[in-house]
Amino acid sequence: MRILMIAALAALPLPALAADVVGNWACTAQKGETSVTNALNLRKNGKYTSDINITGTSQGAAIDFSGSLKGRYTLDGNILTTTPTKVKPTSAKVNGTDLMQDKTLKATIEQQLSAQMSAMQGQLSITELTDATMVFGSGDGATRCTQR
Fold first, then answer.
1. What's CA 55's distance to the chain center, in Å?
2. CA-CA-CA-CA torsion for 11, 12, 18, 24, nearest 10 degrees?
3. Which of 46, 79, 86, 93 would you label with 61, given CA atoms 20 to 30 Å apart?
4. Among 30, 37, 34, 102, which Cα is nearest to 67's?
5. With helix as H, strand as E and coil as C, how does the chain read?
6. How far apart are CA 39 and CA 11, in angstroms?
7. The domain at 2-147 falls in which architecture?
8. Are 18 and 46 in contact (CB under 8 A)?
């Protein structure tokens, strides 16, 4: 899950200020058979929100995960560090079956994701930043964002 999170939101040094990344971004990433879309909002006060959707295959099963994240971020040069403080999964489908429909599974999924994500800090290397575009990483695995 950590790799997918880093893909949602990795190398040239780039002088950047927090004001440069502030805004609403539509981000996409592709890693193998997994695609990630992310509506990312970076605020001036160092807080962020993210609505994320992950689709693909894992261990031969079709997966489709949707959820939202809230947290804090810092920017040091070209390194954006995100620290989630709240994770809210809305859909977790495996082979078309939404695991969030089962109350017991929903509670388990929410607890496990919250524990994993809240303890995780992501460091993303910004390799391109313009008024309209922000890119993390490079090549086929890069996360590409456009200002909304």
1. 13
2. -60
3. 86
4. 37
5. CHHHHHHHCCCCCCCCCHHHHCEEEEEEEEECCEEEEEEEEECCCCEEEEEEEEEEEECCEEEEEEEEEEEEEEEECCEEEEEEEEEEEEEEEECCEEHHHCHHHHHHHHHHHHHHHHCCCEEEEEEEECCCEEEECCHHHCEEEEEC
6. 23
7. Beta Barrel (2.40)
8. yes
Q: In angstroms, rounded to a whole number, what is the distance separating the alpha carbons of residues 139 and 33?
A: 16
Per-residue pLDDT of the chain (148 residues; tens, 9 = 90+): 444 444 444 333 334 444 489 999 999 999 888 999 999 999 999 999 999 999 999 888 999 999 999 999 999 999 999 998 888 888 889 999 998 888 888 888 888 777 666 556 688 999 999 999 999 998 888 999 999 9
Domain spans of the chain, in order of start: 2-147
In the chain, the amino acid numbered 22 is V
Closest by alpha carbon to 29, among 133, 147, 135?
Answer: 135
- Residue 135 CB neighbour total at 10 angstroms: 17
